[in-house]
Structure formats: structure tokens, C-alpha cells
Design a protein that fits this description.
18 helices, two-stranded antiparallel ribbon, mainly alpha
Length: 459
């Protein structure tokens, strides 16, 4: 059966995990697309600020849940305790398919693309009815190798995984800070563009363009709840878990705003608008082509931190599900020697590799945002329901300004979900299909485990 997870992760490592999960491909690629929608740098900064505020509110709400239920699994555990096993299983199912495996694949391919360049020749490919089903190239190979190596690191031991995660995140934050401060003090930019962003009145913009921008930004800020998935391994979780969520999210919000100021300082609006590799473009304008290209490689290495963080966090959800008898029993196994959920890590790596090879994850961005927003909304609603049903329950940490902050979070995410449903109905169908499949698997495991261990779980 193996052993339980051990509490070896302190406040610094938990905070680093939140930062590593959040600072990823979004901040290095999305600002150009957002500016293309808004056509105004002042609105660009405002949207990144709003996204940060929404993420901070989410972190404060998740902090209360994490302090009450300091166990591995995050949302899965919270929904299990509030609504029961069905909603918990569906949440864990969503995490398995679109919460971790697809983003791991996306970040691994982004790393390989930044490292090798976007131009590549497929070694072999396969199409069905004109749709590419498989496209295997050097980029694909490097992405797969990245997932395999980082999965092995986190299988080896919690200590090696934690130290690798801390190093990769420290490296990423170092070069991001270099880009920010080096850009302002030594780069060749134009402060007039920053002045215009702050003091020039923003033009009117359509609700649709603003909503699209916030959908993009919500994706960039996802990961603020990362430490909650490792609640069973965090020391003094009643204090350190909510504090790590808040500190990590606050740091990332400040970092994102500063990076966007650097982009505005480095790039004219017409050049930045629609640009994919906006961080590399800004670095080349600031420091020249040679140093800018080196920073592009540094960004690629920084993306390893994103892959590592998700490889570390995701398997704890499947471990918690299996421990409750709601997933294959093999995935609750914790290696006696290594103290890691080996089989759960291998499962996640396999799913990520399948997505890398088929490249289907590229069509799932809105789908991912929609399904994860639904899960987080249900968790925050659960917090409010628990406050109403069990007002006297011990709460080591309470969400400030309750119920204002949870209501704001639900309204903001509800708007994103509504926009996605109205404008991307295909994504809604994918989400419904995923939920339906999750319900089917839930009843399969219920029938397989007639004496469900869920009721016996000690909390």
C-alpha cells in the first residue's frame, strides 16, 4: 500500500511553487494579442491589473479552504468535503485531463520551440480527412524528453523535486528581473510610451474585446492555487498554505505589471500589437539582436519551471482520488523509499506525451479556461456554503472582507464563463462532454468499490 505523503515543504518552497505555476507562457506571449484586441496600452495595463486582483481574491478564498482541509488534492478535497464524492471526482477528472496534462504538454512544446525556433521539419506526420493527427519532429522529441526527465526528477524524491523546482524558478525570476531592471536602466526604449499609457485617456472599447482580453489574462494568472494541491506535504499548513498562495500571487501580479511596462517601453504599439514572442521582441529592441536572442533562450529554460511545477502538483490530485477509492488503487501508492506518488506521476506524463504527439492541446485553450473557471467557481461557492451550513467550524484562517471578495470572484469568473459559452459554443460542448465522461467514470469506480473508502477517510 505504501506510505502517506510526508510534510517536507516549507513556506518558501510552497510560495515558489505558486510563482512557478503562474509565471509561464502567458506573460511571454499574450500581451501582443491583448493589445491587438484593445488597441490601447492603458487598457492593456488595466486588464493585467484586474486579472491580478481577481487572482488575489481567488488565493484569499482558497487559503481558507486549504487551512481547513490541509490534505493533498486541492479542489478535489474541498469539493469532496462540501458537496460529496461526485463533484469532487469530476473536479479531479478535469484536473487530470485539462488542468495539468494539457498545460504540461503546452509548456514543454513552448520550451522546445523557444529553444530551437519555430521553424521545424516534421520527421513524419499523419492526417485524417485533411486534419493533422500526428506531427512528429525534433520539437516534439525535445518536448517529450522534457516531460520524461522532469517526471523522473519528481519520482526520485520530494527533496530532489523541491530543489529542482526552486532552482528553475529562481533562474526564471532572475532573468525576468534582469529584463525588467536591465531594460529600464540600460535598454534603448522610450519612456514617452509609458507616460502615454498612464496619462492619455483610453479610447472606448467593446465589451467583446475586453472580455477576450480577460479570458487570455485569466489563463496567464492560473496557478495561484498551486500550493493547495500539496496540502498534505506542507509544514504547518494552517499558516503556510494560505500565506504561500497570497504571497506568490501578489509577487506575480507585481511582476506581470512591471514586465508589461517593459514591453511598452521597448516596443511601439504598432510593432507590439499581435506579436507572439513579445518578450523576445522587447529584449531585441532593448539590447540588440544578439543579447535579445540569448534572453529568448533564457525564457525557454525558464519554461522548464512551469513544466516542473505542474508535474509536481498534479499527481497529488490523482493520489487523493485513489486514496478515496474513486480511482484505480494503483495511483494511491507512495513509494516507501522515495515518498512520492510514482504511478500517478507516470500516468500524468503519459497523458502529456499523448497530447504532445497529437498536438490536439493547441485547440483546447478556451476549453481549459472554461472548465478550470467552473471548478474554481464551485470551490469558492462551496466556501460560502460551508460558512452558512457550519458557521462554528474551526477556521485557522478566514477570507477577509467576507462575503464581498467571494462574490466578486464568482461574478468575475462567471462573466468569463458566460462569454466563453456565448462566443465559443464548441468549447462548451467539450466541457460538457468531459463532465459527462467524468460522471460515467465515477459510477464505474463506485460499482467497482462497493465498500467505498471515502466515508472512512480521516480528516
Amino acid at each position: 500500500m505504501g506510505q502517506n505523503l510526508s510534510r517536507e515543504i516549507g513556506l518558501p518552497s510552497a510560495t515558489v511553487l505558486v510563482i512557478a505555476n503562474m509565471v509561464g507562457t502567458g506573460i511571454f506571449t499574450l500581451s501582443g494579442f491583448i493589445l491587438l484586441e484593445l488597441q490601447n496600452t492603458q487598457l492593456l495595463l488595466l486588464c493585467w491589473l484586474l486579472g491580478g486582483l481577481f487572482a488575489l481574491i481567488g488565493a484569499l478564498c482558497y487559503g481558507e479552504l486549504g487551512a481547513m482541509f490541509p490534505h493533498a488534492g486541492g479542489e478535489y478535497v474541498y469539493l469532496r468535503e462540501i458537496f460529496g464524492p461526485l463533484s469532487a471526482f469530476v473536479s479531479g477528472w478535469i484536473s487530470l485531463i485539462v488542468g495539468f496534462s494539457a498545460p504540461i504538454a503546452a509548456a514543454a512544446i513552448a520550451f522546445a520551440t523557444y529553444l530551437l525556433g519555430s521553424e521545424h521539419v516534421a520527421w513524419f506526420s499523419f492526417s485524417l480527412f485533411g486534419v493533422a493527427i500526428l506531427d512528429f519532429s525534433l520539437i516534439t522529441f525535445i518536448a517529450i524528453l522534457t516531460v520524461v526527465l522532469l517526471s523522473y526528477v519528481h519520482i526520485h524524491s520530494v527533496r530532489l523535486g523541491k530543489n529542482t523546482q526552486n532552482f528553475l524558478t529562481a533562474f526564471k525570476i532572475f532573468f525576468v528581473l534582469f529584463l525588467i531592471f536591465g531594460g529600464f536602466f540600460f535598454g534603448k526604449g522610450d519612456f514617452l510610451r509609458i507616460e502615454e499609457a498612464f496619462f492619455t485617456s483610453a479610447q472606448s472599447v467593446s465589451y467583446g474585446a475586453l472580455a477576450v482580453s480577460l479570458v487570455f489574462i485569466s489563463f496567464a494568472y492560473s496557478g495561484y492555487n498551486a500550493a493547495s494541491y500539496l496540502g498534505g506535504e506542507i509544514k504547518n499548513p494552517q499558516r503556510n498554505l494560505p500565506l504561500s498562495l497570497f504571497l506568490g500571487t501578489l509577487f506575480v501580479t507585481a511582476l506581470y505589471l512591471l514586465l508589461n511596462l517593459v514591453y511598452i517601453y521597448a516596443l511601439p504599439q504598432e510593432q507590439m500589437s499581435g506579436m507572439l514572442e513579445v518578450a523576445t521582441g522587447a529584449a531585441q529592441n532593448l539590447f540588440g539582436d544578439t543579447l535579445g536572442s540569448l534572453i529568448g533562450i533564457a525564457i525557454a529554460l525558464g519554461l522548464l519551471s512551469v513544466v516542473s511545477a505542474m508535474v509536481m502538483a498534479g499527481p497529488r490530485v490523482y493520489y487523493a482520488m485513489a486514496k478515496d477509492g474513486l480511482f484505480f488503487q494503483k495511483f494511491e501508492h507512495v513509494c516507501d523509499k522515495r515518498k512520492t506518488p510514482v504511478h500517478a506521476i507516470i500516468l500524468q506524463a503519459f497523458l502529456a506525451i499523448v497530447m504532445i504527439v497529437t498536438s490536439t492541446f493547441e485547440t483546447l485553450l478556451i476549453y481549459i479556461g472554461l472548465t478550470l473557471s467552473l471548478s474554481s467557481m464551485l470551490s469558492v461557492y462551496g466556501l460560502m456554503r460551508l460558512r452558512s451550513k457550519e458557521p462554528t467550524r474551526e477556521r485557522p484562517y478566514k477570507t477577509p472582507l467576507y462575503p464581498l471578495l467571494p462574490i466578486l470572484f464568482l461574478l468575475a469568473n462567471g462573466g468569463i464563463v458566460l462569454f466563453s459559452l456565448l462566443n465559443k459554443p464548441q468549447a462548451a460542448l467539450y466541457a460538457l462532454a468531459t463532465i459527462g465522461l467524468g460522471v460515467m467514470f465515477y459510477f464505474f469506480f463506485q460499482n467497482k468499490e462497493p465498500k467505498n473508502r471515502l466515508s472512512k477517510t480521516l480528516l
